[in-house]
Amino acid sequence: ETGELIEVTIATGRERERVDPMLARSAADGTIEVPLIGDVPVANLEPFEAARNIANAGIERGIYRRPHVTLDIKTRATNKITVLGAVETPGTYEIPRGACDLAAAIGAAGGMTEEASREVDVLRQGPTFLAEKPDEAGGDDSVTQASYRQVYGSDATGPQQGGQRMTRIDLAATPQVAADERLLNDRDVVMVLTREKEV
């Protein structure tokens, strides 16, 4: 995934060789830049497959004869998603970028409460305007508390400023909701709406 920090170790088998790991960050084009070898495509590959690609690139480019390459993902790429409304633990959560969708976001917030409706509002790619404060109860650095009013203001409907886009999604309408509508990007805000009370 783009933005992952990857530790690359290349051993050549030479005597008295000092093997030091090198850090590389995956780029938006699906490559990582390996010292001496250059850019190597690793998008959507398991670590052992990416290591094999790096070894092959080193051989093809005449840098190494028989390199032994190992990869270790040190920091996974994540999106910060704020989940508010009728969920057990509202807050801001870091979700792996490759699996960042509505289900993952709602699951990270402890799931929906009994008052939750099947509809959610998604405010997409808004600026960082949440008045965030650390979660005092849990103390987890990856969770931040926020409130619905801070995000939406007094009027939750209508056009948003700064190019943000509001989308309402019916979670029960599975066939009608395109998969890409369920995907979330960094700093998106998910608001799980409550059911209207029956009289």
Task: Record the SSE blueprint.
Blueprint: E1 5-11, E2 22-25, E3 31-34, E4 38-41, H1 47-60, E5 68-75, E6 78-85, E7 91-96, H2 102-108, E8 116-124, E9 133-134, E10 144-145, H3 148-152, E11 165-170, H4 179-182, E12 189-194
Parallel strand pairs: 6-12
Antiparallel strand pairs: 1-2, 1-5, 3-4, 6-7, 8-11, 8-12, 9-10
Question: Would you give an account of this structure?
Answer:
The structure is a single chain. With 199 residues, the chain is α+β, with helices and mostly antiparallel strands. It is 15% helix and 33% strand. It has a five-stranded mixed sheet, with helices on one face. Strands 2-1-5 form a three-stranded antiparallel sheet, with helices on one face. A two-stranded antiparallel ribbon has the order 3-4. A hairpin with a 5-residue loop joins β6 and β7. The longest helix has 14 residues, at 47-60. The radius of gyration is 22 Å and the shape is elongated. Residues 127-142 and 144-161 have low confidence and may be disordered.
Task: Give descriptors for this structure.
alpha+beta; five-stranded mixed β-sheet; three-stranded antiparallel β-sheet; 12 strands; elongated
The tally of helices reads 4
What is the number of beta strands? Answer: 12
Strand content: 25-35%
* Biggest beta sheet attributes: 5 strands, mixed
Structural class: alpha+beta
Poorly predicted sequence stretches spanning 5 or more consecutive residues: 127-142, 144-161
Strand order of the largest sheet: 7-6-12-8-11
Helix content: 10-25%
Helix-strand string: EEEEHEEEHEEEHEHE
Gyration radius from CA atoms, angstroms: 22 Å
Distance between the termini: 49 Å
Mean pLDDT: 78
The global form is: elongated
